[in-house]
Amino acid sequence: MKFNKWTLGLAAVGVVSLTSAARADEKPSAVQTALSNTTISGYVSASANVGLTDNYAVSPAASIPFQPTSKQNGFNLDVVKLTIAKPEDATPWASGYQVDLLFGPDAVGYNSSVNGTSTTDYAIKQAFVTLNTPVGNGIDWKIGVFDSPLGYEVYDAGSNPNYTHSYGYAIEPTELTGVQASYKVNDSISFSGGVANTSSAGINSRNNTSGYTGNLKTGSDWHKAYFGTATWTAPSSLGWAAGSAAYVGVLYGSVTSSGTAYSNGNQVNYYGGATLNTPWKQITTGVAFDYARNYGGGFSIPGSNGNTDVLALGLYGTYKASDKLSLSARGEYVEADAYSNDKYANSQNLIELTGTVEYDLWANVQSRLELRWDQNLSVSDGLLNGAAYRDAVGLYANIIYKF
Questions:
Q1: What is the pLDDT, as a whole number, of residue 109?
Q2: Which of 124, 214, 268, 344 is deepest in the core (most CB within 10 A)?
C-alpha cells in the first residue's frame, strides 16, 4: 500500500495508524461515492445588439424573447449557466439528478418568480431527481422542476440554429414543476407524459383557482396541467434520411397570471415539429408549428392585447460548410386573434426572417453574427397602437464559451 506524505507524517506522530489508513484508502467514504460520477458544465454568453432602423426600440423586435429594449444598441452579458449533474448508470433502479443555475439578465426573462421579484439576476432553470423503474425497456422519471418537452427551440441559445429566439418559443411553456415519465419503445419510437402544477413558469407555482380569501378556502387544488409527447426517429435503413425525427406534443391545464403573459383560465398548447436530413449531408432542415388557446383571456405578443389564440409556423435550414463555418436561416409566420362573442377580432400578423453566420475559430467557443428582420403585417400606416412601427432590422453578435 502506497501512502501520501501527509498520511505518513500523521502516522509518525501517532495521530493515525497505517492499518486504519489502509482500510480508509480501500473503501471510499459515502460522500466520495455519491460525488464520484458528478459532472460540472455550463457556458458564458455575451452579445452586442444594434438596431439598424430608427424605430427599432418600439418595433416587434422589442418583443423577441430575452431581447428587451434594455439590451438594444450596446454590449450585453446575456447569461451564465452552471449545470451540476449525475446521470443514471446502466443498473436497474438507477438514480441521478440535475441542477441548472442561471446568472445574469436573461435569468429574469426565464423565471421571474425567484424570491418574489422580477428583477433578480438569478434563477433555477431545472432541479430534478431522475429515477429508473426496470419495467420493459425501463421507465425514466423526472421529479422536480424541469424544461417543458414541447418545442423546437430551447432556452440555451448555443443549442439553437440561430442566436435570437423565435416567436414560437415564446408561445410554448418553458418550465414545469411536477413529474414526468419517459419510455423508449425501441430505437425509433419513444413517449413521455406527466403532470405539473400549472402550464406557466415559476417554481412551485399554483393555479389561479386554488388559494384562500382571508381564511376561506377557494377553488380546487387539483386543477393541474397534463402533458404528453411522442417522438419518431428514422432508422438507419432509410439511408440519407436516417436520424431525422418527428415530434408531436400537447399540454393542457391551468395557468397563473403572476409573472406571465397569460390571463386566468385553462390553456392548451399543441406542438408539431421535425428535423430532416437531406441527401446532402451538409444541409439539415426543420419545421415547427405551435398553437395555443387560452380560455381565460389572452397572450401578450408584439402589438396585441388579450388575444386568446396564437399560432406560429417556423422553417429552418442549416448548411455546414466546414468544421468551423455554418450558415443558418429561419423564416416564421405568427398570427394572434382575439375571440369573443363566438367570432374572431383584432387579428395580428407578423413575419420574421433571420440569417446567422457561425465561425468557430477558438476551441470551446461559438461565435455568431446574425441579421434579423421583423415586420408587422397588420399595420398599414406605420404605427400600431400609436407606438410600434411596421418594420425593424437588428444586427446581433454573440460569443458563447462552453465548459
A1: 74
A2: 124
Does residue 26 belong to any structural domain of this protein?
A: no
13 assigned to some structural domain = no
CA distances from 229 to 73, 170, 198 (A): 40, 19, 17
Contact 164, 369 (CB under 8 A): no
- Residue 2: what pLDDT? 52
Query: Is the residue at 334 inside a domain?
Result: yes
Q: pTM, whole model, 2 decimals?
A: 0.82
Question: Please, are residues 330 and 310 in contact by the beta-carbon 8 Å criterion?
Answer: no
pLDDT < 70 stretches in the chain: 1-35, 55-62, 111-119, 207-222, 256-265, 295-307, 338-346, 378-390
β-sheet bridge partners, residue 218: 211
Q: Tell me what pLDDT residue 345 has.
A: 59
CATH number at 151 reads 2.40.160.10
What local confidence, expressed as pLDDT, does residue 391 receive?
A: 80
Containing domain of residue 319, as a range? 47-402
Residue 288: how many other CB atoms lie within 10 Å: 24
Res 229: pLDDT = 97
- DSSP H or E stretch at residue 26: helix 18-26
Domain count for the chain, please give it. Answer: 1
The radius of gyration of the chain's CA atoms, rounded to the nearest angstrom, is 25
DSSP 42: E
Coil, helix or strand for 39? strand
**Is residue 109 included in any domain, yes or no?**
yes
- The owner of cell 468544421 is 323
Closest CA to 382 of 395, 370, 392, 372: 392
